[in-house]
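Question:
Now give any protein.
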Amino acid sequence: MINLSRKLIIICVIVCGWHSASEAQKLLKFKLPDSGQTGSNTSTAGEDSDFLINPPSLTDNGDGTITDNNTGLMWQKTDGGEMIFENAGPYCTGLSLGGHTDWRLPTGIELFSINNYNNLNPALNTVYFTQTQAQYWWTSEKEADDSTKIWVVNAGGGIGAHPKSETMSAGGTKYFNVRAVRDLIKTVFQGPHFTDKGDGTIKDNYTGLTWQKIQSANTMSWEDALAYSRTVSLGGKTDWRLPNVKELQSLNDVLLSKPSFDKTYFPNCLSGNYWSSTSMKQTALKAWDINIDYGIVSYSDKTALENVLLMRGGMDNAGINLTEVHIPGGEYEMGDHFGFVDPHHPSDELPVHLVRVDSFNLAKTETTNQQYLAFLNAALLSGLIQVNNNKVHLAGDTVTLCYTHEYAAYYSISYDGTVFLLADFRANHPMVGVLWPGAAAFCNWLSDLNGLQECYDLTTWDCDFTKNGYRLPTEAEWEYAGRGGHLDPYLNYENGNTVIVSEANLPNSGDPYETGSYPLTTPVGFYDGSLKLKSDFNWPGSVSSYQTTDGANGFGLYDMQGNVWELINDWYGQDYYSISPYDNPKGPDAGFIMPDGKPYRGMRGGNWYNGYDTNGVNDGHSRVSNRNPSYYRGPQDPYHPWYHIGFRVARKYSTITGIYDHGMQDAGYMMLQQNYPNPFERITTIKFYLPQPAHIILTVRNTLGREVAVLADGQENEGWHTVSWDGSQVPGGIYLCTLTGSTHPSTIKMIKIN
């Protein structure tokens, strides 16, 4: 088990209001970069350095600009020098730098985000940002009740409002400089800043962080605040902690004062100082805090008695943007129904044979670089892994888990000797450069993250299918899920018998990511039927927009065709189908020996890189029955790069993460399955199970209890049933679908978006 002890990795994913599936994949602001503090200042658990939150990741573009890979903002490397506030805005808008002319003056939270609290005077990473004489930098924001005061970030790491007259050019004695910023992608928030979750917690929709609604009634010292955070259980979670200085400052609203926190959501946050978990650099007896009369960030002696407001960063699937789809069990004829013969491994898809698989859950999308980055940093902090020769291994082992960006530029995760970082723009693209053991180790970490049992023995690499944790899907599970319920007739590809290039990332398909360096992956879930804009995604291609076709299959899974090959749990066995059992086949006990004398695991789904031409279109090896050993990757086999190999996770069907228990089916209950897709824009599919013939009623109601649709009302046979609802005539919102019949009623919540 990965025991993170005091060291935790947290990744904050932002969802702003309800959007289509692609919207969640954008690099929306404001994902707060970590404070950068690494040194420990106390033996009490819970200080800043015990957590690694969105590791700082900067790229020097070599043209006088710096890109923050967390926030998606581009910064001026060397500030523009000292000037009065009235000149700062025009300076930025008139700046031409790095081939860009859309520069502007940053907001307070933006400018504060580049602070690095492992440094002092300036509290910046001077490897990337040139050190100047600046003592302060202007923001675009004025104090709420005094327009002569401007919010500025100081070189020591604080932020506050200062009179415009203090700068040298206005007759003052200090250097107030300007640093311009620009947006790589559109960064407009949609939806409210906060949501009251009704369980004593408040969700910040701008940062993805969750906060206590009601702070402790007692003030306390910094050490006591850390200890207090470990005792709180709220909203069903126990991983509450003291916020770091960036997280704490993110609550400040420059339009408010006395208090500068929104008291609509934080009703007893009225005045005074609040502790952060961040210590002062080189001053272990002081820690950063915020005074909420005006939102000034400064520091105090740790013995001072201050207010405490706790938060959590989402250490669960929601926190890493992982969504599962329930795949109802059933039987099907596994194999090639269309007579295809692969020249490299002929007849391995025959004979077509009947198999049955139990219900299971499968990730809606492939595992992303951002998700895998969270695993790597958690494993690194816990001592589970090490990096040798730019390859990641289990500590004390030689088995390779994945390759780093330093090994080859194809791979998006870099290692700087201290922490893993994103090396490029592909945060929400599939993780590539990962080998089968790396996928298995990720599954164990994800199981720990959600309080589930680990499936893999990381010594023998055996999988225990009796455990309820995450694992890779079996080959039989993958093909069953890939077919999306299309069993009459069987299809050659997941959604039809021909290739539609606008619904999957296939070789030479013309998508806007087919320009530039490998890998030519697209963001997961990119093909959802919506019009994509370059201003949203900042793709390398020159086109300003790209119309996708909805590539989700019948179960609501994305990228089961194309993008990257997906590793499966099974060893590849060329003749396995001739001896495969009917009930939940799990592959051969040992793999087929490939030309290099080694066995390999299987992979499914095709990829962006290579394939066969079908009617003039390259299908990327994406036939739904196609089997491929991970030996065959390209012309350099067995040494061809792994830039088109990834994975998605599966687990037993259970209620652990909030999905209905298939034990209800075994116990003779009706079962209403969650609709898919959900959220949906027009049409959604609903499945339900009847243990015996019964008269049932399936209705849809709005949150006021008003019936808006009757989807079924009559006698139905035993077994699974599927209905579709066209919600195009109802407004966006939450709807309740209820199945009533011979046993207890079942209800699911469906989300309609416009």
